[in-house]
Specification:
A 5-stranded antiparallel β-sheet has the order 2-3-1-4-5, covered by helices on one side. A 4-stranded antiparallel β-sheet has the order 6-7-8-9, with no helix packed on it. The protein has 2 helices and 9 strands; from the N terminus they run βαββαββββββ. The chain is elongated. The chain is mainly beta. 24% of the residues are buried. Bound molecules: cytidine-5'-triphosphate and zinc ion. Cytidine-5'-triphosphate (CTP) binds next to β1, β3, β4 and β5.
């Protein structure tokens, strides 16, 4: 399915679950962490540094028996704007969804303003997405805008 070239690595098909495809290779672990996949008991397989025409090198994650809500998954658009979700039921792809960044984001991203209260007290960050491309996040607390080049994801 993935490949008919026996020299390429292959990640097995799954029966039921979600395949998250077209993740930039270097952001695989960020996606795992954004989705909290390290904390769930489901079977998960992934491949990284796979060839992709669009991305050069891509990663793919296959989570068995797990179907995500849009707001659970859309935050991965931060690190994988072209990611595509494939919903698998009984080995068939029954639905494809493109991730898209939500209008507001809580947590995961640090405010780049060193004086911001979220960097000094135990307060979860909260941003309004003021631009998606290029990414710009306005802090609800200090109102400073964190751009892609200054973005630190926890
Ligand atoms: N897949 C899987 N298990 C299945 C069916 C599909 O793991 N039972 C995976 C495929 O390996 C692929 C992704 O789900 O990585 C999407 O499958 P498919 O739509 O068949 O592949 P493409 O047409 O290549 O997808 P794209 O839309 O990304 O071009
Ligand atoms: Zn702030």
């Amino acid at each position: 399915m993935e490949s008919n070239n026996s020299k390429e690595l292959k990640v097995s098909a799954i029966k039921d679950g979600t395949v998250i495809d077209h993740i930039p290779a270097q952001n695989l672990f960020k996606v795992i962490s954004l989705l909290g996949l390290e904390k769930i008991p489901n079977a998960i397989t992934f491949g990284t540094n796979l060839e992709s025409k669009k991305l050069g090198r891509k990663s793919i994650i296959k989570v068995s028996d797990r179907f995500f809500e849009d707001d659970e998954i859309n935050k991965i658009a931060l690190v994988a704007p072209e990611a595509k979700l494939n919903i698998i039921k009984d080995y068939e792809v029954v639905e494809k969804r493109q991730v898209s960044l939500p209008d507001e984001l809580t947590g995961y991203v640090r405010c780049f303003n060193p004086k911001c209260i979220t960097n000094h007290e135990d307060i979860t960050t909260h941003f309004f997405v003021v631009s998606k491309m290029p990414l710009a996040l306005k802090c609800r607390y200090c109102e400073k805008v964190t751009t892609e080049e200054h973005m630190v994801i926890e």
